[in-house]
Amino acid sequence: MLTCENLRFGFRHHPVLTDIGFELAPGEIVGLVAPNGTGKSTLLRNLTGLLTPQAGTVTLDGADARRQRRAFLHGLFFLEDGQGLLPTLTAREHFAYVKAAWNSDVGIDAVLSALHMTAYADKRVGRMSLGMRQHVLLGLYMIADARYLLFDEPLNGLDPTSIRLFTQIFTKLKQRGKGIIMSSHQLGNVTAMADRVFFLKDTRLQVFDAASIDLDATYDALYGVQEADW
Q1: Does the pLDDT of residue 121 top 70, yes or no?
Q2: pLDDT > 90? residue 224
Q3: pLDDT classification of 186: cutoffs 50, 70, 90
Q4: DSSP sequence for 4-63
Q5: Helix-strand-coil percent breakdown of the chain, rounded to 5?
Q6: Are 167 and 191 in contact (CB under 8 A)?
Q7: Of all helices (H) and strands (E), which one includes residue 172?
Q8: Is residue 70 over pLDDT 70?
Q9: How far from 185 is each of 92, 126, 127, 190, CA to CA, in Å?
Q10: 62-66: which pairs have CB atoms within 8 A and are 24 or more residues apart?
């Protein structure tokens, strides 16, 4: 179980997260939804320890994110975006590194095949398109085989065919018992995949059962749609 209790964070005198608390179970997908600038990425960074909460705790199967860092990180995988990839390395080299670091039994060739990456497996990341880099990112999550996976806009820059492929992969990861948090602006895909939806509103979480709400209507009710003054 990934557990967050009473987490609080802000920049100087600007609060971003207030009393955030939830549990993420194995085999559960949570969609994290909010407009840009409301704190989605900040929350993910706090959960993983890239930012230090001003209050509260985060634990993973009992391992504290700060006091038991090694055990905590071994059960978690998070890479913010393609900027974390090394431009001079290939997809295959990235996969080999993560496979060794997480002591994973997942096969590199199996992941390359599943993501339809064989044709550019040995291409340097610096020469890849945005969509190709997104495939590399998802492949790293698959290779790591960690129990809990946190994604920040994994569908960004993908064509409809790739979005359908990624949706299938997320469903298979869930079936394999992975606990997943995924921030996304693709509300249709959140509806298709998520068990619960976390909305960040006014620095706090509002939690809904995905099957019980109209996601678009709830989003509009929470955040509104500003008419263009034109």
Answers
A1: yes
A2: no
A3: confident
A4: EEEEEEEETTEEEEEEEEEEE-TT-EEEEE--TTSSHHHHHHHHHTSS--SEEEEEETTE
A5: 40, 25, 35
A6: no
A7: helix 160-175
A8: yes
A9: 29, 26, 26, 8
A10: none
